[in-house]
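Entry type: protein chain
Record version: 2
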Amino acid sequence: MAVRNRFRAWSCAFAFATVLALPAPCAENPDWSTLDPATQELLAPWRDAWTTLATADRTRLLANAMRWQAMDASARASFMQRSTDWQALRPTERARIRARYAAWRALPPDDQARVRAAATQFTALPAAQQASMRARFAALDANRQHDWLLGPSTGAWIEQARTAFAYVPDGERDATLRMLQALPADARTQLFALARRLPDDQRERLRKQLLGTDPARRETLLLQRMSQ
């Protein structure tokens, strides 16, 4: 019973853990009767509701059970402590961590590699220098802090984008960012230069026109506007 209760608490907390991003190594939508006794014991709190659970929920619970069974006692104790620490966080802090993890997963592999290298370099710095850099980051406003989540490739030009398109409606910011990220580097640089030369109304019209254009034709449209 104690093991089952610990697993149930762990499994609930596990829904918010990053390891859930891993592929679940178990059968899709399995029937309760096909589960082995050890797995049934761990999942006993969900037995009565098993047939009504969504496939994704069954798969997640089974993946959790398999990973739990694969852990030794030390690994289980360590993970339980991390789960307890997670549950103790304020909802706003958990939301911030989820957002950061989602941003990390959205980065291209090259950016992830560069971030890992930078993290390695950071941990090698003296403690005083690390503290100074953390303080400088904490002093940035929310928008500048968010820019760091976009990764080094986008971070290299995001300030130019903010200058070129300073008043993008909230509902169009994500689409505008994706549009800029998809442009070739030369075309993006040309767009920023063009936008800075245009009056505000024409600049906004250009942005909306690019958003409404098929991605494959955006560079051609930009070249046409540059030649006018």
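Comment: The chain has three domains: 2-88, 104-151, 157-228.
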